[in-house]
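User: Predict 23S rRNA (Guanine745-N1)-methyltransferase's structure from this.
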Amino acid sequence: MWQCPLCKLPLQTHQTDAPDRPLKTWLCKNNHSFDKAKQGYVNLLPVQNKRSKMPGDDVEMVAARTSFFAEKPYAPLVKRLSEVIRSIVMHNNASSCVPRNVVDTSGNTFNIYDSGCGEGYYLGELSALLLDSNLGADLGVKKDTTTFFTFAGHDISKAAVIAAAKRNKHTQLVVASTINIPVLDSSQDIIIQVFAPACAGEYARILHSNGVVITVDPAPKHLFELKEIVYENPELHEKHSAVLTGFEIIQQHHLGFSVSLRSVKARLALLQMTPFYWKTNDTQRALIRTKLMQVTADFVITVWQQSKGAEGDKAALSDSMVVALPVIGVLHDNALQDDLSGIENEL
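Assistant:
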């Protein structure tokens, strides 16, 4: 599924005579090689494509997110995402338009790709839910089928991908930019994008014709209790209004729930993984440590599919970039900013 970031040829990731044995070095026919790090990820972001020495979230930001997500505060969001994915698969099954893995068309395998995967929380939790042994009956898949989904993803932050690889030891993860996703054409069935930048042209290129993009963005009340401490006159977050060029909305869901912050560690981790960390003073941080007992998690989940006629015009989409710019709760804020600098140069 991977392609060389330099010449765009397919990368060999497993031994030819033993497809179940991964290679320690990924190779293309032009002899470009990319070593697998000891943590299990591969860096597919060429030096010449970097806009900074260490693009994306730093180690401290990743550590804060890892700490916050350790208690699974967004479990309802993961559950809803899994339900949305299941409903899409079931609907496509019924209409005989099920997107298939081009490598294995007999095994009812669906490729799920996390664009801007961060520390791997959503990949890990979704794989646990979607690979549940009871899922086969729900999807109408034969009982002897054991694998229903494959998972992969990228992030521009090396620190984030290292954390994601540690969390998801059997998932292929790479360091890469959303502007140049190192994935083969028409190889993915579902792309998920949670609080991350998007590139419509790249999504159109790597998706199957019946594939979908699932985006998650902040709804108006997201983390409002935190805003009340940071701002004198807090305002509701403006509803996300971005459009993926060449795609149309086929589903949209709103999900809101309360997140308990039982420990000081959780409260500070939440603060550190948002832009608010840089806006707060010592007094405000003290209030957050002692008073912020819960926050509202508020999300908009949108399902996109390529518009009719867009399939034949993918070239026109190649430079089309849509960026989610949430004002609050940006889980991958630094990575977004690095990709944004690249977007400005690309357009």
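Confidence is low (pLDDT under 50) at residues 96-106, 139-147, 315-347.
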